[in-house]
Amino acid sequence: MQVPAPFEYARATSVDHALALLAERGEEARIIAGGHSLLPMMKLRLVRPELLIDINDCVDLDHITEDGDTLRIGALTRHAALLASDTIGRLVPMMVDAEHVIADPVVRNRGTIGGSLCQADPGEDLSTVCDAMFAEVVIRGRDGERTVPMDDLHRGPYETAVEQDEIMTEIRIPVRPGAGSAYEKVERRIGDWAIAAAGVSVWMTNGTIDDVGIGLTAVGLDDGLATAAQDAVRGRAPDEDLYAEAGKLAAEQCDPVDDQRGSATYKRHLTAELTTRALRRAVERARTA
Ligand SMILES: Cc1cc2nc3c(=O)[nH]c(=O)nc-3n(C[C@H](O)[C@H](O)[C@H](O)COP(=O)(O)OP(=O)(O)OC[C@H]3O[C@@H](n4cnc5c(N)ncnc54)[C@H](O)[C@@H]3O)c2cc1C
Question: 259 pairs with which residues across the strands?
């Protein structure tokens, strides 16, 4: 079925207005941002909201702001804006790597970072980026706002800590010295979802990796982070052996499944290779930053 069930539509004039509509209509209501995940699900009748609350006029949710030691990205910021942003390119180059391989210009012109994180698709690229950057998200309800670390945001596929009567408003990424990051993805064709992908961030001083985040996409990793590989890398001076060791540990920790994108064995092989490459490139970027 490619036609959604009937629904009502309301254009929220502010976040408070959207929150009031959510509270009024309860389970029947859904936020719509770019619509590139929600509308296909409605067309397939996997979801049937009775009211769509459009937040596209909530312009205070659309910003990329460097604020001291925090990079703040509004939830309504489009993929295309992230791809074009010099600030993102300088502070989170892995996000630009990822944006180059997310869908196509039609999706990137409309799809939002908040929609991506709230959709919580296991193949979704920006969640891995935010996991590996140790980001936090800001969630607002009628009683105020709370900040949730990425590893508490996703409760499982398509399930998040954002409650029915809440809205994600911002993503906050810590800005630390000595940083470098990179994202490596293999897909079946340009613009497709990942068969597997790895996002790595490092923070270095005097040639040593002080801290590292290694996120994996679409390979069944609980909480998104390859913790065993991170533990092996932290405190070490990087070289080819270390990159390969991290790749091997990431591949051991993940739990991919056979599907139309490839076999579990192939995905595990990709995970090792992509982690190795992303770590190598993140270190190079940290050295030249
Ligand atoms: C053809 C195609 C290819 C794609 N390829 C890729 C890909 O390769 N990699 C990838 O990562 N993604 C891919 N996507 C997904 C795309 O990135 C997402 O659809 C999009 O970013 C989701 O954002 P949106 O703004 O469209 O969300 P919407 O579809 O508007 O919303 C998605 C969900 O999030 C909720 N929501 C949205 N914003 C908020 C908010 N601020 N607070 C609370 N809840 C909210 C909605 O209620 C809904 O449940 C693809 C999509 C398409 C259609």
Answer: 262
42 has pLDDT over 70 = yes
pLDDT, averaged across the chain: 96
Tell me if 218 sits within 8 A of 123, measured CB to CB.
yes
Is the C-beta atom of 276 inside 6 A of ligand 1? no
pLDDT score recorded for residue 222: 78
pLDDT at residue number 1: 60
**Residue 228 near residue 266, CB atoms below 8 Å:** no
Counting ligand 1 atoms within 8 A of each CB, the residue from 17, 25, 36 with the most, and so the one to mutate, is 36
Percent helix, strand and coil across the chain, each rounded to 5? 40, 30, 30
List of residues 6+ apart from 201 with CB closer than 8 A: 92, 94, 132, 133, 134, 179, 180, 181, 212, 213, 282
Closest among 202, 121, 117, 181 to 152, alpha carbons compared: 117
Q: How far apart are CA 149 and CA 272, in angstroms?
A: 26
Ligand 1: does its nearest atom lie under 6 Å from the Cβ of 30?
yes
What are 72-108's pLDDT values in tens digits? 999 999 999 999 999 999 999 999 999 999 999 999 9
Predicted pLDDT of residue 183: 98
Stated pTM of the model:
0.97
* Token pair for 54: 């459009």
Q: Beta-strand (E) ranges in 12-116?
A: 29-32, 51-54, 64-67, 70-74
Q: Which atom of ligand 1 is nearest to the CA of 76?
A: 41
